[in-house]
Amino acid sequence: MATKPYKNSVLDRPGHPDGMRVPENYFESFARDMISRLPENELEKQPARLLTPPTRWQRLRPFVYMAAMFAGIWCMMNMFSMIQKNASSFNDTSLIATTTPAHDDYIIDYVIDDYNGDQLLDELYAEGFSPNDFNF
Amino acid sequence: MSKSLPEDDIDLVQRLRDPATCREAFGEVINRYSEPLYWQIRRMINSHDDANDLLQNTFMKAWQALDNFRGDARLSTWLYKIAINESLSHLERERRRQDISIDDEAASIANTIEADEWIDGDALSVKLRKAVAHLPEKQRLVFNMKYFDEMKYEQMSEILGTSVGALKASYHLAVKKIEQYLERD
């Protein structure tokens, strides 16, 4: 062992003795006692957990979760598609509503309101209508 | 796992991480590292009985935390860190128990050195132990690792989390202080 040339001779002693010693066979008996006193640790508890066969639900669970996720996505897409369809049909109705009043028949049939009851009766009498034909 | 790990360390770490082989592998760890760890603790604590207790605590903590050991660092580095933490905690506890400051600790350690039956009668060695006891904790650690264990600065750096440059400076300073102490005493 190469020693450094220290200024003080105490530090320069070969082997750098520290003056400490241990009881005879200390390390052998320490290792033996220590190994025998080791309790079960977390790592050793793992095999017991791994050896337990998984239940049917534990095996199926990932697939069920995945199926539920896809079903959810499918439902969501359907909902969006329905919302979009409704939105477009609403637009069609409003188109009819805005164009229909411009039609002549519609205006005559539903808008013009100068056709009074007397005129209607005159026309009916002219066509041969008699109030006696009806049993009121 | 780090590629810089020694081949036998890689094999040992693999067996330590396997629940089926971890107990047997940890037995190998105890056989391999109990001596260097003991000396590391003993040189900080000085008392054989306390060092024995702290060594047991070190291995017990390592065993309980085995599933957290990822194998990124050297096994020896991990164990040294635990041992040093145990030693420093013990010194702190002792200071509190005896109600002494960190500056008065050297006198207490000197008493321990004189009272310990497992320190031989070599006067020069006892003198050196007392000189080392006067160093601050971190310098004492650096000095013990370099002078007695002849550890490489790179490994010391991994264990202590200090740069190599700072460790070299710390060791140089420690040697100077010890030489001054020895000349004065």
Report on the structure:
In chain A, 61% of the residues lie in helices and 0% in strands. Chain A has five helices and no strands. Chain A is rod-shaped, with a radius of gyration of 52 Å. Chain A starts with 25 loop residues before the first helix and ends in a 10-residue tail after the last helix. With 185 residues, chain B is an all-alpha fold. Chain B is globular. Chain B starts with 6 loop residues before the first helix and ends with a helix. The model of chain B has no long low-confidence stretch (mean pLDDT 87).
Keywords:
heterodimer, A: 136 residues, mainly alpha, 5 helices, 61% helix, B: 185 residues, Rna Polymerase Sigma Factor, Chain: A, Arc Repressor Mutant, subunit A, 2 domains, 9 helices, 0% strand, globular
Describe this structure in a few short sentences.
The complex is a heterodimer of chains A (136) and B (185). In chain A, 61% of the residues lie in helices and 0% in strands.
Mean pLDDT of chain B: 87
SSE class of chain A: mainly alpha
Low-confidence sequence ranges of chain A: none
Number of strands of chain B: 0
**Which whole number gives the mean pLDDT of chain A?**
77
Give me the number of helical elements of chain B: 9
Number of distinct helices of chain A: 5
How is the main sheet of chain A built?
Answer: none
Strand content of chain B: under 5%
- Radius of gyration over C-alpha positions of chain B, nearest whole angstrom: 18 Å
Name the largest protein-protein interface in this structure.
A-B, 29 and 45 residues
Q: Give the class-level CATH name of the largest domain in chain B.
A: Mainly Alpha
End-to-end C-alpha gap of chain A: 138 Å
Determine the strand fraction of chain A and express it as a percent band.
under 5%
